[in-house]
Amino acid sequence: MRRTVCLLAVLLVVPSLGSDEPRGYEGQVTWDDGLQGAWRLVTFETPTLRINHENADPDILTFRAGKWERSSVQISEAGTYTPSTGFAPARLDRTYTAGAYTGSTEKLIYCIDGDRLRIAARFKEGVRPGSFAEEALYIYTYQRMK
Asked: What total number of domains does the chain contain?
């Protein structure tokens, strides 16, 4: 009887000691930077211009496990990205591996507020903005796609 109880305990406990990774992610790095998924451009702003894209052809930016892709009727770009969330606002380095800017890296800042993503870049390449309130910025606002 004692052996049966011990054997039963082992059979019930051992499977629960397995991996705590979700199924389908065994051995993979999981990303939790808040950027994962597809985002649709809703506005583009400069100091003198604001363009509403909500009713325009879709301009989609997708982030997946360190890679990004942007596609629209006129644009097809892709690359890698590195977020740094320990800053306020968070930083984003986006390197182009396909498209018109292949080989270049953008120094950006970003902020996620619910299902809204704001990304800012300076007019001068290679220089990261310090805040969204600075002059001479391009500001892109995206809506998370469901």
From this structure: 1
- CB-CB contact of 62 with 69 (8 Å): yes
**Residue numbers of the domain that contains 60:** 31-144
Q: What's 58's domain CATH number?
A: 2.40.128.490
The DSSP secondary structure of 59-128, one letter per residue, reads -EEEEETTEEEEE-SS-EEEEEEEEETTSSSEEEEEEEEESTTTT-EEEEEEEEETTEEEEEEESSTT--
Q: Considering the domain boundaries, does residue 17 fall inside one?
A: no
Is 96 part of any domain?
yes
Q: pTM for this structure?
A: 0.77
Bond into 15 cis (ω within 30): no
pLDDT in tens, 11-60: 444 444 444 444 554 555 555 789 999 999 999 999 999 999 888 889 99
12 in a structural domain: no
Please, are residues 61 and 70 in contact by the beta-carbon 8 Å criterion?
yes
